[in-house]
Write a structure and sequence with these properties.
mainly beta, Immunoglobulin-like, Jelly Rolls, 6 domains, twelve-stranded mixed sheet, 71 strands, globular
């Protein structure tokens, strides 16, 4: 087994040789630079060959290896920036990920395409038709656009009647190039132009008019000085499948699938059941396809399942994380198509459902594989519903690379009255960091009465002509909860973690909740290497984001492994151990940064951290009446987090600014400062009265300076361990009189009116004291006289004396702290903040 295979085995971690990933020099605690891999050239190779790669990036010092998620790939460093990569002959064609490993850890990933065709690199000069590089058919050419005016030309020989497929891959392999393909004949006459077919990447299906020589030119669509304008040009006469119908299959079943593409010769495929050709420019053939079950792999039939131990060799965007699929390869075809997997019955739409009067009846739940070929074509479906019945309707088009912009409407039985309309999903759970927005419609609808209702699916994107590629999937489901999980490193969003010994790194986790899922979600790590910790965190009810914190012990061995995360939903058996999918940013050479999913998240332990902070949200408190207490939390209360600062360089002191990270959306962030002379402080958060009961997790981010070489300092941000807390139903609600005095002078005594109203069946005694984070009653410079409510009492007044030695200014997180007593034991707790400022 080679290094690349061993490095990513789920149950094995490789301990690297001493010094491989380097240590920071003794006495200099500056954070090491973060490796960034910006270019790999060539950006692909043929399976079964060895290729020399040139790597470009930053902080790639001490290059040791290149790691790939394709099984069996082996690397050997040639010199500082070049690596020899060997790819096994049985590697599935497709798009994989590469990482560079060096003295500073593991780099950001780059896409790398493994093909089944011979590959060459462009040879300059090839900047005009006259200088065109002569190339063979059925080959792939790796090139780069080096300037705004650059143009690459390739000459090929073809025979009359041949169908030559010319495809440029750029954006689909992390390149910033937006290419234009132009085909010229031997006299320089323009025969065809392609400006975008698969997204912005162009493709031309070229029927050769006569025997002879032809030139294909690759040029940028608009002049640009952006870096990383690599591309791959495929010139192919072999079968090329573009799409299929149906394009989604029921798991574990065998289905007849009609393939659409070019050069599809059924006589070459034993799976074929009948030939056909010439459908609007596409050839067609029918094959039997067996859909895998989750976790299966089937290489014998050239298929890779969605959750197989083999990687899916395709590049996907974050919005596509919800689409389960598998790769299907037609024999002799260089490119796979990806067919969807579902647990719903699948049907292909009929040809005459384009009006309300011919609406196609649907049994639900179900999934329809539909097609909107015409420019203004609409599909109509009919469902039976009962009053109050809940339906979730979703159409998928953009997320399967179909050239459509879909809308769904629900109409009454006549098709005349529109009841509801669903369109673009413009919000993103991952924000701009990991964009999950898309133009596919999703919505929840409740039937207003018993009866028949019509569903209308249409393409508002239109178009000037017919296009058979306009396929879609329509699902009609009940309120059946589901979940997908995404994660992305928070440091530089670059698809890997470099963890310093004694330090921590943060991964943002995003929950895509579907069809009414609002329960708490627990995120856990698996198969961590020795010396690395990653405590479980919780996303509370309806919470969609949190942070995972990965920590390395001071004595952890230097290693390279991967971070594996799973999520589980309380109380739903089928939503246990859901794999978390990881994302990365893609540098584009412009202010706009794209993101995509990656196959896994490498985790390197290297170097040493200069500072660590430890957070504790469960400190015990000393109460004047009830002694040592472990505070429980409820809506309307306050969460106090104690923060301890641990510096390697004890001689360097600096203020530490604290703020929260990974907070549920309902909790307002706060800040505090630990003075330079102190090693401990607090950060407190107000818990909204509307916060649902459940488990939640937060963490604390600290900003300070550390010692750097040459007696300088360097600003750093570090994150604490996560703090998990449980919100219990409130037994009472404490409120301060909004007209209470808010400014007071030293030596002054004031009365603060307040209420503490019992709720949720609580009838016990309540005692209220003045408190701050970590202290009840004995607040420096401020004295409060406690008060007890018995019987039906719910209103009172607390006397507060401000001593002459009180610190002037606002008193952070000063509060009225109330204890609810059951059988003389403190059981329930609540707080109300008191915004008090001490004047000179």
């Amino acid at each position: 087994m080679n290094l690349a295979s061993r490095i990513f085995r789920r149950v094995q971690t490789i301990v690297l040789v001493a010094g491989m990933l380097g240590l920071v020099a003794e006495g200099a605690f500056a954070a090491p630079p973060s490796p960034l891999l910006t270019s790999v050239f060539p950006a692909g190779c043929q399976a079964g060959t060895t290729v020399d790669l040139t790597l470009i990036g930053t902080a790639l010092d001490g290059l040791r290896s290149v790691e790939c998620n394709a099984p069996g790939v082996h690397s050997e460093v040639i010199d500082g920036g070049r690596v020899r990569l060997s790819v096994p002959a049985d590697t599935m064609p497709g798009c994989y990920d590469l990482w560079a490993v060096g003295s500073n850890g593991v780099s950001s990933p780059r896409s790398f395409i493994i093909s089944g065709r011979p590959e060459l690199s462009e040879a300059e000069p090839n900047n005009s038709r006259m200088e065109a590089q002569s190339v063979p058919l059925d080959s792939i050419f790796n090139g780069r656009i080096d300037s705004a005016s650059d143009l690459d030309a390739y000459r090929f020989q073809a025979q009359a009647g041949q169908r030559v497929i010319l495809e440029c891959v750029a954006q689909r392999m992390d390149s910033s190039l937006r290419a234009v393909l132009t085909i010229l004949n031997n006299d320089g006459r323009e025969l065809a132009v392609g400006r975008g077919y698969f997204g912005v990447d162009p493709l031309i299906s070229f029927e050769v008019p006569e025997d002879g020589s032809y030139v294909v030119q690759v040029a940028p669509l608009t002049p640009t000085s952006a870096a990383n304008q690599a591309y791959r040009l495929e010139i192919d006469t072999q079968p090329r499948v573009v799409f299929a119908r149906p394009d989604v299959l029921l798991k574990g079943t065998t289905t007849q699938v009609e393939l659409f593409g070019w050069n599809l010769n059924p006589q070459q495929s034993s799976a074929s059941t009948g030939p056909s050709s010439g459908f609007a420019g596409f050839d067609r053939m029918v094959v039997d396809v067996t859909a895998p079950i989750d976790g299966e792999e089937n290489r014998g039939s050239m298929q890779i399942a969605a959750h197989s131990s083999l990687p899916r060799p395709m590049q996907r965007h974050a919005a596509e994380a919800v689409i389960d699929s598998f790769a299907f390869y037609l024999p002799r075809s260089q490119a796979a198509i990806f067919l969807g997997l579902t647990d719903l019955p699948v049907r292909t739409d009929v040809d005459d459902n384009h009006a309300p009067s011919t609406a196609e009846p649907l049994d639900h739940p179900c999934l329809v594989a539909g097609q909107l070929t015409g420019r203004t074509e609409q599909d109509w479906y009919a469902i039976q519903a009962r009053r109050g019945e809940v339906f979730y309707l979703e159409a998928v088009g953009q997320r399967i690379q179909s050239p459509v912009d879909l809308e769904i409407s629900v109409f009454d039985a006549t098709g005349q009255k529109e009841l509801v309309q669903f369109g673009d999903q413009s919000s993103s759970v991952g924000g701009r960091m990991l964009d999950t927005s898309h133009s596919d419609p999703v919505g929840r609808w409740v039937a207003p009465e018993d009866g028949r209702f019509l569903l209308n699916v249409r393409n508002i994107g239109g178009g000037v002509s017919r296009d058979e590629r306009r396929i879609y999937r329509l699902s009609v489901r009940r309120e059946d909860a589901d979940l997908h999980l995404l994660a992305m490193p928070a440091n530089d969003s670059a698809g890997r973690l470099n963890l310093r010994r004694g330090g921590r790194e943060v991964v943002n986790v995003f929950a895509l909740r579907h069809r009414g899922l609002n329960e708490s979600i627990r995120i856990s790590a698996r198969n961590l290497p020795a010396g690395v910790e990653c405590p479980d965190v919780w996303l509370g009810p309806d919470v969609t984001n949190a942070v995972i914190v990965v920590s390395a012990d001071q004595g952890a061995a230097e290693s390279l492994s991967e971070l594996q995360l799973v999520g589980s939903v309380e109380g739903i058996d089928r939503l246990q151990n859901i794999p978390v999918q990881f994302g990365t940013s893609v540098p584009s050479g412009t202010p706009l940064t794209r993101s995509r999913l990656i196959s896994r998240l490498p985790l390197a332990v290297t170097g040493e951290a200069a500072i660590r902070i430890i957070a504790d949200g469960h400190e015990t408190l000393q109460h004047p009446l009830y002694g040592t207490m472990q505070v429980q939390h409820s809506p309307g209360g306050v969460l106090d987090v104690a923060v301890q600062i641990d510096r390697r360089d004890a001689g360097h002191g600096a203020p530490v600014r604290l703020t929260g990270v990974g907070l549920p959306q309902a909790i307002v962030n706060e800040t505090s400062v630990i003075p330079a002379a102190q090693a401990k402080g607090y950060l407190s958060f107000r818990l909204p009265a509307t916060l649902p009961p459940g488990q939640y997790s937060v963490a604390v981010q600290a900003e300070t300076t550390i010692a750097a070489p040459d007696q300088k300092t360097e600003s750093v941000m570090v994150v604490s361990n996560p703090v998990t807390f449980e919100i219990q139903p409130a037994a009472f609600a404490v409120e301060v009189d909004p007209f209470a005095q808010k400014r007071v002078r030293r030596g002054e005594t004031i009365q603060v009116s307040y209420t503490s109203r019992r709720q949720n069946g609580f009838i016990g005694k309540m005692h209220t004291e003045l408190a701050i984070a970590g202290i009840i009653t004995d607040i420096p410079g401020i004295l409060g006289r406690g008060e007890t409510f018995t019987g039906q009492t719910e209103q009172g007044s607390l006397q507060i004396l401000v001593n002459e030695d009180a610190v002037p200014g606002p008193q952070p997180f000063l509060r009225l702290f109330t204890v609810g007593v059951v059988e003389d034991q403190p059981v329930f707790f609540g707080s109300a903040l008191l915004p008090l400022e001490v004047m000179e």
